[in-house]
Design brief:
Elements: E1 6-19, E2 27-29, E3 35-42, E4 47-54, E5 57-63, E6 71-72, E7 77-82, E8 87-92, H1 96-121, H2 158-237, H3 242-352
Antiparallel strand pairs: 1-2, 1-3, 1-8, 3-4, 4-5, 6-7, 7-8
Helix pairs in contact: 2-3
């Protein structure tokens, strides 16, 4: 990529996903860690792109067109479809604010691409290749210094700086791990919801089949009872003629066939009942998994709150140290001034003597 031809205009960190090409429903993570995702502007071709590189491989290389749409699917997850790449990209952010910033920038770049296309169609030469955004908006820089311009002149403690840097790195690692786990749990939660819907549909179907078999069983039982009564009546008459014997044998054979049929239906009903029980067990496992996920989310929120509190305490302590150093510097300035006055007085005294 030529740096003079294509320049980044906005960068952020996010976990990158791509839609499964086989199912078109499940997300496939593109990397194990959060990656830098940037908007780039090509001044030569007047084209805007979203690019993310993992190692030596381009994970995202999506050209923004006016008909694209970025959709927020949750508080920290968003997606857009790229018809040229024949895929759907998903991004998991560390906070809702980062997601909102990326979505706003997507809308701005999309509008700029639309204006660029209209100008290209009108064959109008562009004089300003910069992104068409409001004049008061400032493009964020990928690297922002946390130290003010006057802090280099302060007499700070080197050990305190090392401790603050170590604490910042530890907090960044904790926040990164938390965002990865949250995205994975969100994907698992969606998968569990899909499985739950399938189980509910199968359960309704099984219940309908059980009701149908029960109706058929009641009809068979009623018919069997009628035949049994008929057989009892024939036996009570004591008819010994051949025609009666033949009818009795036929009725007995029909009765046996019906009993076998009833037995088969009973076995089918028992099988359906066992399937129903297994589905209820799966439902219980799903509820237990959801409870574990909720507990884990609560634990992460607690750890995040503790980390934020620790960071706030560290910053307060740092500010306190800076104030003390400033006071010491002021006292030293006063002492130096007084010493200068004393030296001038001594010099005058020596001259007078």
């Amino acid at each position: 990529m030529s740096t003079t031809r294509e320049q980044p205009i906005f960068s952020t960190r996010a976990h990158v996903f791509q839609i499964d090409p086989a199912t078109k429903r499940n997300w496939i993570p593109a990397s194990k860690h959060a990656l830098t995702v940037s908007y780039f502007y090509d001044a030569t071709r007047n084209v805007y792109r979203i690019i993310s590189v993992g190692g030596t491989k381009a994970i995202i290389n999506s050209t923004i067109t006016p008909n694209m749409t970025f959709t927020k699917t949750s508080q920290k997850f968003g997606q857009w479809a790229d018809s040229r790449a024949n895929t759907v990209y998903g991004l998991g952010f560390a906070s809702e604010q980062h997601l909102s910033q990326f979505a706003e920038k997507f809308q701005e770049v999309k509008e700029a691409a639309r204006l660029a296309r209209e100008k290209s169609q009108d064959k109008t030469e562009l004089t300003n290749p910069a992104l068409n955004i409001t004049s008061h908006q400032v493009l964020p820089s990928p690297i922002i210094s946390s130290n003010g311009p006057g802090e280099d002149k302060l007499f700070r403690s080197q050990s305190a700086d090392v401790e603050i840097t170590t604490e910042k790195e530890r907090l960044k690692k904790m926040l990164s791990e938390g965002s990865v786990s949250e995205v994975q749990w969100e994907a698992e939660f969606f998968s569990l919801q899909d499985n739950n819907n399938k189980l509910v549909a199968a359960l309704h179907e099984a219940n309908a089949n059980v009701d149908q078999w029960k109706k058929q069983l009641a009809a068979y039982q009623e018919e069997t009872e009628t035949l049994r009564q008929r057989v009892a009546e024939l036996e009570s008459q004591g008819a010994h003629d051949s025609s009666s014997e033949n009818n009795k044998e036929e009725l007995s054979q029909t009765l046996e066939e019906l009993e076998l049929l009833i037995k088969a239906k009973d076995e089918e009903i028992q099988m359906l009942k066992s399937q129903k029980c297994s589905r209820w067990e799966a439902e219980g496992e799903r509820e237990e998994t959801l409870q574990k996920l909720q507990a884990r989310n609560a634990e992460l929120e607690r750890r995040l709150h503790l980390a934020e509190q620790t960071l706030a305490d560290t910053l307060a302590e740092r500010e306190k140290i800076q104030n003390e150093v400033t006071k010491v510097a002021e006292i030293m300035d006063v002492k130096i001034f007084e010493l200068s006055e004393i030296r001038q007085g001594l010099a005058k005294l020596v001259e007078s003597n």
